[in-house]
Write a structure and sequence with these properties.
mainly beta, three-stranded antiparallel beta sheet, 11 strands
């Protein structure tokens, strides 16, 4: 096992101070090598978050495209199969598949040119199966790349 602390990339969709949604590539890097439950071997563990959460799996059909909208709550989105995209109000479009993750936190955007929040949809010829982990509460202040 490598003793080198891992880094895990993710995309953060957030609202800036002007009410515009943006996306930033971030990295989690604060991991501790320990056993999840002894006698299991140690593994790299990130920080735990104790906010109340709701977990669900969604299936976006082939060709599905959502209208411009904000995330209903701050939420992790983890593609399990297929591919999907997120386009933020600043024009950034990110496509993701299995092994890539996104944190959607674009609440409080201001409508501009018919856009508010983000647009998302499936990519390619198969449905996008996503695991969604929604936080029960939003933070009063959004800080890009807050998960370390």
């Amino acid at each position: 096992m490598s003793d080198e602390t891992p880094t895990v990339p993710y995309w953060h969709l957030y609202t800036d101070g002007d009410g515009l949604s943006r996306q930033r590539r971030c990295h989690m890097s604060e991991f501790e090598l320990k056993s999840m439950q002894p006698p299991a071997a140690p593994q790299w563990q990130g920080r735990k978050h104790h906010d109340g959460m709701t977990v669900m799996v969604t299936v976006q059909p082939v060709g599905w495209e959502g209208a411009w909208h904000e995330n209903p709550a701050p939420q992790w989105i983890v593609p399990l199969s297929g591919r999907w995209y997120v386009e933020s109000m600043d024009g950034t479009r990110v496509e993701m598949g299995p092994g890539e993750i996104s944190f959607g936190e674009d609440q409080g955007t201001r409508e501009r040119d018919g856009r508010k929040g983000h647009m998302s949809g499936t990519v390619g010829g198969e449905p996008a199966v996503l695991m969604v982990i929604q936080f029960d509460t939003a933070r009063p202040e959004i800080t890009p790349c807050r998960f370390r």
